[in-house]
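Bumping with the actual sequence this time:
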Amino acid sequence: MRTPGAALRVHFTADDLARVRFAPRPAPLQELHAALTTAVTPAGPLSGPPAPLFGPWRGRVLRALPAAAGPLADLVPAGRPPSSLDMLGDTLPDAFERIRATGPGVVRSELERVYGAGPAPRWLRGLHAGEETAWRTVRRAQRAAYESVLAPVWPVIQDLHREEFTRYALTVAEHGVAAALTALAPGSRLHAGHGGVWEWNRGPAPEQESDRDGERGWHRPDGPRREVRLGGRGLVLLPTFHHPAGPLLQDLPGRPVVLTYPAGPGLPPVPDGPAPPDEALAGVLGRTRAELLRLLTGPHTGPHTTTALARALGVSNATASAHAAALRAAGLLTTTRTGRSVTHERTSLGTLVAGDGAP
């Protein structure tokens, strides 16, 4: 149980109230990080819908993540991301370029912060050394995670963002900025005064520390109250549809403060329309068996031995053999033994079920 209290207080000057703006477009990198944070939290969000409602979504996300996204786990040990990872950008390449421009001192101190006394993986040391190979690894990992987690729902996120933007604009037009701010966060309050103080009463995780160079990244206010003084820098409002237990706060010196707040229906968005064929097939056969069936695309790709299939699937030979046996029993593939070698081929029924047009 958390004791109710003001987890976050944002202090406005009169100038700041005139400099509140709503992000015109969703930020793909921040939305990706919000989705991954929610997906890897075993107990589910700390507030919002009950954790069991996230189970099917979490399972789909974690199964869909490709191996190329693995380096992101090295960058976020124990769920504590370096603040240098979070940079606003309208596109993924734009956000990455802003991350890449982070000073090596900040990168080093942030990696030391999130790893504490423990050694960081060797490849991470190349980031603050400016090694292009290491930075390309990060870029590939972000792209791979985006394509599997966000790309299928990005049109939905864009629609939700437009709805949220419109709702905010109408509230400002009818009732003013103060009413619009408190409407974004039920339970928050805006106290009158010199500009005003916006007070939030909840937060999902302990506040992150600031790095030794003074740059502070995304904070998750909770526990001790956090005071943020805009000081004329203004405030950018950014909704997120994958992190139901906000707010998240980016407070970098000399820049507008960015406040990300939970929006949408409370559960992560799903693609519009029917499930893609790959997802539908995985739902019937199971993801590994569906992938095994798709790997059997014809003799021109080489012999489909149990060992080759196991290597492609990232499972043991025994597991691959068991999956092949289940598909064989369903009439979806045939198995031929030649000496010590066992090869598998799809049947006509298997090709029809896979739906990829392969012979």
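The tokens above came from a reply further down the thread. Residues 105 and 128 are 7 Å apart (CA to CA).
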